[in-house]
Amino acid sequence: AQSVTQLDSQVPVFEEAPVELRCNYSSSVSVYLFWYVQYPNQGLQLLLKYLSGSTLVKGINGFEAEFNKSQTSFHLRKPSVHISDTAEYFCAVEMDSSYKLIFGSGTRLLVRP
Amino acid sequence: NAGVMQNPRHLVRRRGQEARLRCSPMKGHSHVYWYRQLPEEGLKFMVYLQKENIIDESGMPKERFSAEFPKEGPSILRIQQVVRGDSAAYFCASSPLASGSFSYEQYFGPGTRLTVT
Asked: Which residue from A18, A38, B22, B39 could staple onto A88, CB 3.0 to 4.6 Å apart?
């Protein structure tokens, strides 16, 4: 079965430190990859997406992610986090243009001063 | 340029009552998707609709849940005879008609948080 794994349920980090949120997926077909952010009691906002082309994708708010096909990963990174980045981050996969997004269980990023 | 709108934002129902959740897609979008987020979990796909058509309802529970997207008006997700386990956040997303090799990018609404008491 196709699945998305976010191994870290919570990642605490100090302000201005770098961060990496991990995402792995299982699929034997072509995929589109997404990272969404969810602030408390709000909906999901698209951070970035990989459809094709360059494997390094830059998104909003200084985030970037790298698609690694051999490792079936799409890890999210930011070189220097802010307090305002505290939120839940979801990795999602759309497999073989099927329109159905499959979400990971989320990673809570907690940025401390 | 309004985004995806959902109402109500919060809904409280007693066990056995009906819950009706509304979703108005972004202007120009003809595809609507419903997802459910249980506490401490990611979103799970429920149903995909186009105007007057259910395209994929493979994620919908077999009983008590139904969805529609009429020719006029918002998409409705209806839950009959709600139970405590239905308490969750329900998100609607919409997308435009895509072409070429690009994904049907989905834009999400703020969600409806259903609490069953």
From this structure: A38
Q: Which residue has the tokens 């008491």?
A: B117
Per-residue pLDDT of chain B (117 residues; tens, 9 = 90+): 578 999 999 999 999 999 999 999 998 888 999 999 988 788 999 999 998 899 999 999 999 999 999 999 999 999 999 999 999 999 999 988 654 445 567 889 999 999 999
In this structure, are residues B47 and B30 in contact, taking their beta carbons and an 8 Å threshold? no
B 36-75 residues with CB < 8 A to A: 40-45, 48, 56, 59
Burial profile B22-40: b = 16 or more Cβ within 10 angstroms, e = fewer: bbbbbeebebbbbbbbeee
**What residues are paired with A78 via a beta bridge?**
A19
Residue B90 in contact with partner chain A when CB distance is under 8 A:
no
A32 contacts in chain B (CB < 8 Å)? 103
Strand-strand pairing, B5-7 and B43-50: unpaired
Looking at residue B94, what is its pLDDT?
92
Backbone angles phi, psi at A62, to 5 degrees: 80, 5
